[in-house]
Specification:
Distance between the termini: 11 Å
Structural class: alpha/beta
Radius of gyration: 20 Å
Bound molecules: inosinic acid, magnesium ion
Shape: globular
């Protein structure tokens, strides 16, 4: 029997796995959705009735009128981006009053952080990280060296710094002790969803250091970043695309630099939602996925963008060791699917070769697939296992 109704969604690779869409689907049954790490370096894209909405700070749960949204203390937040996002929501007629809460212990991203991020990238030469230049690293640096500015301090701010005055106006109406609030929802047996940003391989401790972001992107980060104990987490879902992408510098063993990469990039619209940079593209890396299962303690996998691979001559996966890449002949029956998957809504409707591919992934990493996305829209999804009751 389930003890709590709490679910963490994390990315298994370098971010942009398609978490936004799954969070959106799971938020239908959530009472609350919490962000616990990162900042506006994230860009969570969801498509509703053909309309694209990109949220960078506020959880996409905000688009469902009954869902409470929380920005917890593991985040660092830019006041101007927060204000712009509220404006975007206002234009979409989304009412946030009484539904949006921000931790008074979250840290402020300042113009100085952005300037430092840019200066550090520009002077790094070939050692640059390829950051999103949103001031994330310097904001966390100030937090960890105990020089940061917590949002709660804005309540009593009486100085004349124009940015801090804007921040005061933007944040003060939303500030609360979010740990207390989230735990009260869990106590009441409500469904709480934790929305991870970036991905396991960008995690400050467990990623491809130094080519990582500056926060805790793994499932454990949901606990430290929100003030919820690990004993209260019920299920952790890892999101992976059916292939892998990476923006920014750093290792990428399965990267492709050929026409297949071009094809996947254009079909999958693999361009950064924050920076518009073309994303690097490669095959699914199963040892890396198995690593993500381990460091997050994943209970299930959600597979995004399966439809993008339809019609390729071969679909490959990396299995590591001496024979890194294998093709469909070795994991399946030698045929790769050409069917359009976007209309399929059940696992059994999927072509046999797709089922072989998915089965191979499950067997290799040792956890079941709970959700499969076969197209960008909310309803273009196969629910294998209903995660929330
Ligand atoms: P930063 O988070 O801006 O410091 O960037 C550090 C690294 O993480 C760079 O490689 C970025 O491209 C990458 N990164 C940060 N946020 C995201 C994201 O939401 N999706 C994909 N990559 C990200
Ligand atoms: Mg993104």
């Amino acid at each position: 029997m389930k003890k709590y109704n709490t679910v963490i969604v994390v990315g298994t690779s370098f971010g942009d796995e398609g978490k936004g869409k799954f969070v959106d689907i799971l938020s239908e049954k959530s009472d609350m959705v919490c962000r616990f790490n990162g900042s506006c370096n994230a860009g969570h894209t969801i498509i509703i009735n053909g309309k694209k909405v990109i949220l960078r700070l506020i959880p996409c749960g905000i688009l469902r009128p009954d869902v409470i949204c929380v920005l917890a203390q593991g985040m660092v937040i830019d006041a101007d981006v927060f204000t712009q996002e509220l404006e975007t929501l206002r234009k979409l007629d989304v009412n946030v009053t009484g539904r949006l809460f921000v931790s008074d212990a979250a840290h402020l991203v300042t113009p100085d952080h952005i300037a430092r991020d840019i200066a550090s990238e520009e002077s790094a030469g070939d050692k640059k990280i390829g950051t999103t230049r949103k001031g994330i690293g310097p904001a966390y640096e100030d937090k960890v060296t105990r020089k940061g500015f917590r949002l709660g301090s804005l309540k009593t701010y009486n100085g004349d710094d124009v940015y801090l005055l804007r921040a005061k106006k933007a944040f003060v109406p939303y500030l609360i002790d979010t740990s207390e609030y989230i735990n009260s929802f869990i106590d009441a047996g409500k469904n709480v969803l934790f929305e991870g940003s970036q991905g396991t391989l960008l995690d400050i401790d467990h990623g491809t250091y130094p080519y990582v972001t500056s926060s805790s992107c793994i499932a454990g980060g949901a606990c430290t970043g929100s003030g919820v104990g690990p004993t209260r987490i019920n299920h952790t879902v890892g999101v992976t695309k059916a292939y892998v992408t990476r923006v920014g510098e750093g290792p990428f063993p399965t990267e492709l630099n050929n026409d297949i990469a071009e094809r996947i990039r254009s079909r999958g619209q693999e361009f950064g939602s924050v920076t518009r940079r073309p994303r690097r593209v490669g095959w699914l890396d199963l040892p890396a996925l198995r690593y993500a299962v381990r460091v997050n303690g994943l209970d299930s996998l959600a597979i995004a963008k399966l439809d993008v691979l339809s019609g390729l001559d071969d679909v490959m996966v990396s299995i590591g060791n001496d024979k890194p890449l294998i093709g469909s002949k070795e994991w399946g029956n030698g045929t790769v699917w050409s069917e359009d998957l976007t209309k399929m809504r059940t696992y059994d409707e999927l072509p046999e070769s797709v089922r072989l591919y998915l089965g191979y992934i499950e067997k290799f990493v040792g956890v079941p697939i709970s959700l499969i996305s076969v197209g960008p829209d909310r309803n273009e999804t196969i629910v294998v296992d209903q995660i929330f009751d």
